[in-house]
Amino acid sequence: MDLLFATNNIHKIWEVQEILGDAFRVFSLKDINLCADIPETSDTLAGNAVQKARFIHQKTGMDCFADDTGLEVDALDGRPGVYSARYAGEGCSFDDNVAKLLKELSGVENRNARFRCVVCLLLAGEEHLFEGRIEGTILRERKGAQGFGYDPIFVPAGYHQTFAEMPAYLKNGISHRGKAMFRMMKYLKGNEGTDSGLSLVSKPV
Ligand code: IMP
């Protein structure tokens, strides 16, 4: 099955292709020669995922899916959350965001956090939402060079390595995005509901 992923983030494309495996071919916007600045102006992850998918569907007429992810830090009342991409300001880099988070958490004992990812699949005129989350802790310094975003400072619960120290298959097997994509894959294969703990919502466009 061919799927269009409404993202400009090449790291996400790599991850999702590996998660979905050979039964699916994931196309990026670049693959279809679409250069678009995708809006994400909602104050919820689900709102942004829907907004991104609708925007690309309107531009292309194609079925597609989009994700939105937030890092929720307990000591910061859930921030940066839905604003994770531009935490350090418009146009900031992954590294700027990590630096700002480390600064805000300096001297803070409670390092608990989670990644939450919502995927919106826009298929045959219907929207389907899938969610995945992973609990973990925020380190005091960066470790590792794999992955992207906040990966160098996030250690998933039950592990000693950051996401950035893990091989891709390990991160993808336990991550927020991996879980959300797994649910989408189950749905596309006609087996939705066979795994547990994550929500699936369907509603008309
Ligand atoms: P987005 O809006 O879904 O692209 O995600 C918001 C921000 O969260 C991104 O700019 C990244 O900094 C961060 N992010 C998203 N997914 C991940 C991940 O899997 N690992 C680390 N950081 C991530």
Walk me through what this model shows:
The protein is an alpha+beta fold and 205 residues long. The chain has a single domain (2-190), classed as Maf protein (Alpha-Beta Complex). 28% of the residues lie in helices and 25% in strands. The chain is built from 5 helices and 8 strands. The strands form 2 sheets. Strands 3, 4, 5, 6, 7 and 8 form a 6-stranded antiparallel beta sheet that branches. Helix 4 packs across helix 5. It is globular. The model is unreliable at 193-205 (pLDDT under 50). Bound molecules: inosinic acid (IMP). Inosinic acid binds at residues 9, 40, 67-69, 84-85, 94, 97, 147-151, 163, 175, 177.
Which short descriptors sum up this protein?
about 200 residues; Maf protein; two-stranded parallel ribbon; 5 helices; about 25% strand; globular; disordered C terminus; binds inosinic acid
Query: Count of DSSP E strands?
Result: 8
Q: What's the CATH topology name?
A: Maf protein
Residue ranges: pLDDT <50 for 5 or more in a row?
193-205
Backbone CA Rg: 17 Å
Task: Summarize the helices and strands and which ones pair or pack.
Elements: E1 2-4, H1 10-20, E2 25-27, H2 45-60, E3 64-73, E4 80-81, H3 94-104, E5 112-123, E6 126-138, E7 154-156, H4 168-174, H5 176-188, E8 200-204
Parallel strand pairs: 1-2
Antiparallel strand pairs: 3-4, 3-5, 5-6, 6-7, 6-8
Helix pairs in contact: 1-4, 1-5, 4-5
Inosinic acid (IMP) binds next to strand 3 and helix 3.
